[in-house]
Amino acid sequence: MTQINRTETNKISGDYSVNYLNNLKISTRLWLLIALLSSLLAFIGFLGLNAANQANEGLRSTFEERTVPLSELGNINYLLNRNRILIMDMLIHSDPANVQRRSKEFRENSEKRAMLWKQYAARKLRPEEAKIAKVFDEQVADYASNGMTPVVDALLAGNREQAEKFYREALSPKAPAVQDSTTALFNLQIEVAQQEYGLAVERYKTQRMISISVIVLGIVLSVVFGYFLIRNIALALGHAIEVSLAVSEGNLSNTIRQDGQDEVAQVLKSLAAMQRNLALIVTNVREGSEGVSTASAEIAQGNQDLSARTESQASAPKI
To answer: What is the pTM for the complete model shown?
Structure first.
Protein backbone atom coordinates (compact mmCIF):
# COMPACT_ATOMS: atom_id res chain seq x y z
CA MET A 1 0.00 0.00 0.00
CA THR A 2 1.37 3.40 -0.96
CA GLN A 3 1.54 5.76 1.99
CA ILE A 4 1.76 9.54 1.61
CA ASN A 5 3.40 10.78 4.75
CA ARG A 6 4.35 14.34 5.40
CA THR A 7 7.21 13.20 7.60
CA GLU A 8 8.74 11.39 4.66
CA THR A 9 8.60 14.51 2.49
CA ASN A 10 10.18 16.67 5.17
CA LYS A 11 12.24 14.60 7.62
CA ILE A 12 14.49 17.47 8.52
CA SER A 13 11.58 19.55 9.80
CA GLY A 14 10.56 16.89 12.30
CA ASP A 15 7.40 14.92 12.90
CA TYR A 16 4.39 17.00 11.96
CA SER A 17 2.14 15.08 14.32
CA VAL A 18 4.01 16.19 17.44
CA ASN A 19 3.67 19.86 16.63
CA TYR A 20 1.04 21.16 19.00
CA LEU A 21 0.34 24.17 16.82
CA ASN A 22 -1.71 21.86 14.61
CA ASN A 23 -4.29 21.63 17.36
CA LEU A 24 -5.02 25.32 16.86
CA LYS A 25 -6.90 26.80 13.96
CA ILE A 26 -4.93 28.86 11.49
CA SER A 27 -6.95 31.93 12.43
CA THR A 28 -6.14 31.30 16.10
CA ARG A 29 -2.45 31.04 15.32
CA LEU A 30 -2.58 34.28 13.36
CA TRP A 31 -4.37 35.99 16.24
CA LEU A 32 -1.71 34.68 18.62
CA LEU A 33 0.99 36.14 16.40
CA ILE A 34 -0.87 39.46 16.22
CA ALA A 35 -1.37 39.43 20.01
CA LEU A 36 2.33 38.69 20.55
CA LEU A 37 3.46 41.53 18.28
CA SER A 38 0.87 43.90 19.75
CA SER A 39 1.99 43.08 23.28
CA LEU A 40 5.61 43.71 22.38
CA LEU A 41 4.71 46.99 20.69
CA ALA A 42 2.64 48.01 23.70
CA PHE A 43 5.50 47.13 26.06
CA ILE A 44 8.01 49.07 23.96
CA GLY A 45 5.58 51.98 23.84
CA PHE A 46 5.20 51.81 27.61
CA LEU A 47 8.98 51.90 27.99
CA GLY A 48 9.15 54.90 25.70
CA LEU A 49 6.43 56.75 27.56
CA ASN A 50 7.99 55.87 30.90
CA ALA A 51 11.39 57.10 29.71
CA ALA A 52 9.80 60.32 28.43
CA ASN A 53 7.98 60.77 31.75
CA GLN A 54 11.19 60.23 33.71
CA ALA A 55 13.03 62.69 31.46
CA ASN A 56 10.25 65.22 31.96
CA GLU A 57 10.30 64.66 35.73
CA GLY A 58 14.08 65.06 35.73
CA LEU A 59 13.83 68.35 33.84
CA ARG A 60 11.11 69.56 36.20
CA SER A 61 13.19 68.61 39.24
CA THR A 62 16.28 70.27 37.82
CA PHE A 63 14.37 73.44 37.04
CA GLU A 64 12.33 73.73 40.23
CA GLU A 65 14.84 72.33 42.71
CA ARG A 66 18.15 73.52 41.21
CA THR A 67 17.74 76.26 38.58
CA VAL A 68 15.22 78.36 40.53
CA PRO A 69 17.19 78.10 43.81
CA LEU A 70 20.36 79.07 41.94
CA SER A 71 18.55 82.12 40.59
CA GLU A 72 17.33 83.03 44.09
CA LEU A 73 20.80 82.59 45.56
CA GLY A 74 22.24 84.68 42.75
CA ASN A 75 19.77 87.47 43.46
CA ILE A 76 20.45 87.25 47.19
CA ASN A 77 24.18 87.47 46.56
CA TYR A 78 23.62 90.42 44.23
CA LEU A 79 21.50 92.28 46.79
CA LEU A 80 24.09 91.69 49.53
CA ASN A 81 26.86 93.03 47.32
CA ARG A 82 24.64 95.87 46.13
CA ASN A 83 23.94 96.96 49.71
CA ARG A 84 27.64 96.95 50.49
CA ILE A 85 28.27 99.12 47.43
CA LEU A 86 25.51 101.47 48.61
CA ILE A 87 27.20 101.74 52.02
CA MET A 88 30.55 102.52 50.41
CA ASP A 89 28.87 105.14 48.24
CA MET A 90 27.29 106.74 51.33
CA LEU A 91 30.69 106.75 53.06
CA ILE A 92 32.27 108.49 50.07
CA HIS A 93 29.37 110.86 49.42
CA SER A 94 27.97 111.42 52.90
CA ASP A 95 25.77 114.39 52.11
CA PRO A 96 22.24 113.98 53.58
CA ALA A 97 20.48 113.80 50.20
CA ASN A 98 22.66 110.95 48.93
CA VAL A 99 22.49 109.12 52.26
CA GLN A 100 18.69 109.32 52.27
CA ARG A 101 18.45 108.09 48.69
CA ARG A 102 20.92 105.26 49.14
CA SER A 103 19.53 104.19 52.51
CA LYS A 104 16.07 103.90 50.99
CA GLU A 105 17.40 101.58 48.30
CA PHE A 106 19.32 99.71 51.02
CA ARG A 107 16.10 98.97 52.97
CA GLU A 108 14.27 97.89 49.79
CA ASN A 109 17.10 95.53 48.89
CA SER A 110 17.09 94.10 52.41
CA GLU A 111 13.35 93.38 52.17
CA LYS A 112 13.77 91.73 48.75
CA ARG A 113 16.66 89.64 50.08
CA ALA A 114 14.60 88.48 53.07
CA MET A 115 11.70 87.52 50.80
CA LEU A 116 13.96 85.57 48.42
CA TRP A 117 15.58 83.72 51.31
CA LYS A 118 12.17 82.84 52.72
CA GLN A 119 11.21 81.31 49.35
CA TYR A 120 14.47 79.39 49.19
CA ALA A 121 14.25 78.05 52.74
CA ALA A 122 10.60 76.99 52.28
CA ARG A 123 11.67 74.19 49.94
CA LYS A 124 12.47 70.68 51.08
CA LEU A 125 16.23 70.85 51.46
CA ARG A 126 18.69 67.98 51.52
CA PRO A 127 20.36 67.39 54.92
CA GLU A 128 23.70 68.81 53.77
CA GLU A 129 21.98 71.73 52.06
CA ALA A 130 19.89 72.46 55.15
CA LYS A 131 23.03 72.49 57.29
CA ILE A 132 24.80 75.00 55.01
CA ALA A 133 21.61 77.06 54.68
CA LYS A 134 21.31 77.33 58.46
CA VAL A 135 24.89 78.60 58.76
CA PHE A 136 24.31 81.03 55.88
CA ASP A 137 21.11 82.37 57.45
CA GLU A 138 22.86 82.98 60.77
CA GLN A 139 25.84 84.64 59.12
CA VAL A 140 23.70 86.90 56.91
CA ALA A 141 21.53 87.89 59.87
CA ASP A 142 24.64 88.81 61.86
CA TYR A 143 26.20 90.51 58.83
CA ALA A 144 23.09 92.62 58.25
CA SER A 145 22.16 93.49 61.85
CA ASN A 146 25.65 93.88 63.33
CA GLY A 147 27.55 94.95 60.23
CA MET A 148 25.52 96.81 57.61
CA THR A 149 22.67 98.29 59.63
CA PRO A 150 24.89 100.05 62.23
CA VAL A 151 26.86 101.71 59.42
CA VAL A 152 23.68 102.96 57.72
CA ASP A 153 22.20 104.15 61.04
CA ALA A 154 25.38 106.05 61.84
CA LEU A 155 25.35 107.71 58.42
CA LEU A 156 21.70 108.68 58.79
CA ALA A 157 22.61 110.20 62.14
CA GLY A 158 25.37 112.17 60.44
CA ASN A 159 28.16 110.39 62.34
CA ARG A 160 30.52 109.52 59.50
CA GLU A 161 33.45 108.61 61.75
CA GLN A 162 31.36 106.10 63.70
CA ALA A 163 30.08 104.67 60.40
CA GLU A 164 33.64 104.19 59.14
CA LYS A 165 34.57 102.46 62.40
CA PHE A 166 31.61 100.04 62.12
CA TYR A 167 32.57 99.40 58.53
CA ARG A 168 36.20 98.54 59.36
CA GLU A 169 35.61 96.61 62.59
CA ALA A 170 32.24 94.90 62.03
CA LEU A 171 31.11 94.86 58.40
CA SER A 172 34.35 94.02 56.55
CA PRO A 173 35.43 91.12 58.84
CA LYS A 174 32.03 89.43 58.50
CA ALA A 175 31.79 89.68 54.69
CA PRO A 176 34.19 86.82 53.72
CA ALA A 177 32.30 84.23 55.79
CA VAL A 178 29.01 85.26 54.18
CA GLN A 179 30.57 85.01 50.73
CA ASP A 180 32.01 81.57 51.56
CA SER A 181 28.57 80.30 52.65
CA THR A 182 27.02 81.71 49.48
CA THR A 183 29.65 79.95 47.35
CA ALA A 184 29.05 76.70 49.27
CA LEU A 185 25.33 76.87 48.49
CA PHE A 186 26.10 77.60 44.83
CA ASN A 187 28.52 74.67 44.61
CA LEU A 188 26.05 72.35 46.36
CA GLN A 189 23.33 73.17 43.82
CA ILE A 190 25.72 72.45 40.95
CA GLU A 191 26.93 69.21 42.58
CA VAL A 192 23.39 67.95 43.15
CA ALA A 193 22.45 68.88 39.58
CA GLN A 194 25.43 66.85 38.35
CA GLN A 195 24.33 63.88 40.47
CA GLU A 196 20.81 64.08 39.10
CA TYR A 197 22.20 64.26 35.58
CA GLY A 198 24.29 61.15 36.27
CA LEU A 199 21.21 59.31 37.53
CA ALA A 200 19.29 60.42 34.44
CA VAL A 201 22.06 59.05 32.21
CA GLU A 202 21.99 55.71 34.07
CA ARG A 203 18.20 55.54 33.71
CA TYR A 204 18.54 56.27 30.02
CA LYS A 205 21.12 53.50 29.59
CA THR A 206 18.90 51.04 31.45
CA GLN A 207 15.83 51.99 29.41
CA ARG A 208 17.83 51.75 26.21
CA MET A 209 19.16 48.30 27.09
CA ILE A 210 15.69 47.04 28.02
CA SER A 211 14.21 48.50 24.82
CA ILE A 212 16.90 46.92 22.64
CA SER A 213 16.47 43.58 24.42
CA VAL A 214 12.70 43.65 23.98
CA ILE A 215 13.02 44.61 20.31
CA VAL A 216 15.52 41.79 19.67
CA LEU A 217 13.35 39.34 21.62
CA GLY A 218 10.29 40.44 19.67
CA ILE A 219 12.07 39.96 16.36
CA VAL A 220 13.34 36.51 17.38
CA LEU A 221 9.93 35.38 18.67
CA SER A 222 8.18 36.73 15.58
CA VAL A 223 10.61 34.99 13.23
CA VAL A 224 10.41 31.68 15.14
CA PHE A 225 6.63 31.77 15.51
CA GLY A 226 6.20 32.86 11.89
CA TYR A 227 8.57 30.13 10.69
CA PHE A 228 6.67 27.36 12.45
CA LEU A 229 3.35 28.85 11.38
CA ILE A 230 4.38 28.96 7.71
CA ARG A 231 6.07 25.55 7.95
CA ASN A 232 3.03 23.84 9.41
CA ILE A 233 0.61 25.39 6.93
CA ALA A 234 2.93 24.62 3.99
CA LEU A 235 3.42 21.00 5.06
CA ALA A 236 -0.30 20.48 5.62
CA LEU A 237 -1.25 22.03 2.28
CA GLY A 238 1.51 20.05 0.55
CA HIS A 239 0.13 16.86 1.97
CA ALA A 240 -3.40 17.81 0.84
CA ILE A 241 -2.11 18.53 -2.68
CA GLU A 242 -0.32 15.15 -2.82
CA VAL A 243 -3.47 13.36 -1.71
CA SER A 244 -5.59 15.23 -4.26
CA LEU A 245 -3.16 14.41 -7.08
CA ALA A 246 -3.06 10.74 -6.06
CA VAL A 247 -6.86 10.55 -6.04
CA SER A 248 -7.05 12.32 -9.41
CA GLU A 249 -4.70 9.64 -10.81
CA GLY A 250 -6.99 6.90 -9.53
CA ASN A 251 -4.87 5.84 -6.57
CA LEU A 252 -7.38 5.24 -3.79
CA SER A 253 -5.15 3.18 -1.49
CA ASN A 254 -3.24 6.01 0.15
CA THR A 255 -3.10 6.42 3.91
CA ILE A 256 -4.11 9.99 4.71
CA ARG A 257 -2.99 11.30 8.06
CA GLN A 258 -5.13 14.00 9.68
CA ASP A 259 -2.97 15.68 12.31
CA GLY A 260 -4.44 18.36 14.53
CA GLN A 261 -7.73 20.20 14.51
CA ASP A 262 -7.01 23.09 12.18
CA GLU A 263 -8.71 23.93 8.89
CA VAL A 264 -6.22 21.95 6.81
CA ALA A 265 -6.78 18.89 9.02
CA GLN A 266 -10.51 19.25 8.32
CA VAL A 267 -9.77 19.33 4.58
CA LEU A 268 -7.66 16.18 4.92
CA LYS A 269 -10.46 14.46 6.82
CA SER A 270 -12.83 15.37 4.00
CA LEU A 271 -10.36 14.02 1.44
CA ALA A 272 -10.03 10.79 3.43
CA ALA A 273 -13.82 10.40 3.51
CA MET A 274 -14.02 11.13 -0.22
CA GLN A 275 -11.30 8.55 -0.90
CA ARG A 276 -13.16 5.91 1.14
CA ASN A 277 -16.42 6.66 -0.67
CA LEU A 278 -14.74 6.55 -4.07
CA ALA A 279 -13.04 3.27 -3.16
CA LEU A 280 -16.42 1.87 -2.10
CA ILE A 281 -18.03 3.04 -5.34
CA VAL A 282 -15.23 1.51 -7.39
CA THR A 283 -15.52 -1.76 -5.45
CA ASN A 284 -19.26 -1.83 -6.06
CA VAL A 285 -18.79 -1.07 -9.73
CA ARG A 286 -16.10 -3.73 -9.98
CA GLU A 287 -18.34 -6.29 -8.30
CA GLY A 288 -21.24 -5.28 -10.57
CA SER A 289 -18.99 -5.57 -13.62
CA GLU A 290 -17.83 -9.01 -12.54
CA GLY A 291 -21.48 -10.08 -12.10
CA VAL A 292 -22.38 -8.80 -15.56
CA SER A 293 -19.34 -10.54 -17.00
CA THR A 294 -20.33 -13.84 -15.36
CA ALA A 295 -23.90 -13.51 -16.58
CA SER A 296 -22.70 -12.71 -20.07
CA ALA A 297 -20.45 -15.76 -20.05
CA GLU A 298 -23.31 -17.95 -18.87
CA ILE A 299 -25.59 -16.54 -21.57
CA ALA A 300 -22.93 -17.18 -24.20
CA GLN A 301 -22.44 -20.69 -22.96
CA GLY A 302 -26.20 -21.26 -23.03
CA ASN A 303 -26.36 -19.98 -26.58
CA GLN A 304 -23.59 -22.31 -27.57
CA ASP A 305 -25.34 -25.26 -25.96
CA LEU A 306 -28.60 -24.34 -27.66
CA SER A 307 -26.89 -23.99 -30.99
CA ALA A 308 -25.21 -27.32 -30.54
CA ARG A 309 -28.46 -29.05 -29.71
CA THR A 310 -30.19 -27.39 -32.61
CA GLU A 311 -27.51 -28.58 -35.01
CA SER A 312 -27.63 -32.05 -33.51
CA GLN A 313 -31.34 -32.26 -33.97
CA ALA A 314 -31.14 -30.93 -37.51
CA SER A 315 -28.58 -33.55 -38.50
CA ALA A 316 -30.45 -36.46 -36.95
CA PRO A 317 -32.22 -38.81 -39.61
CA LYS A 318 -35.92 -38.44 -39.91
CA ILE A 319 -38.11 -41.56 -39.26
So the answer is: 0.62
